[in-house]
Amino acid sequence: MSVRILALVGSLRAGSHNRQLAEAAVKLAPQGSEVVLFEGLAEIPFYNEDIDVEGSVPAAAAALRAAAGGADGFLLFSPEYNGTIPAVLKNAIDWLSRPFGAGSFTGKPVAVVGTAYGQYGGVWAQDEARKAVGIAGGTVLEDVKLSIPGSVERFASTHPVDDAEVAAQLTEVIARVHGHAAEAVAA
Hints:
Shape: globular
Largest sheet: 5 strands, parallel
Strand order of the largest sheet: 2-1-3-4-5
Distance between the termini: 14 Å
């Protein structure tokens, strides 16, 4: 059984280290797993209940929901902006939390990882993302964490997929999400 894990990246910057980490996850997905990197978070309008109307949901938000609906689990990559979660990632969580009680995260495993310039690797933002996605109905894998500090220096000349320590840790994260997703699908 193949497990599809949807990756959402909270940074829009082309050279983002979190995007590179997500690209590494796509390459490192173990047998039986597929990590799909969602493109298009920048095009999704800020969540507004007035525009979240069946039949006229903005195309970019509908595409996100369709991708999430086909996912068995989620892997969120969050940098830290001013000590908290980036707006683009929070907006995606908001869109996927609806309709209330039946959003795309409901009953599916979610892990939050990331890298940041600071000495703690973005843990505050990642904790905030876990909180938001848990309230949105996701099954947050609280014990599946990866916070990589010092991203600017660490990944200055090395892509995360080529960093043996990071690649091993990320592979373990994906395997854990895969395991939880496979259990949820089988139940």
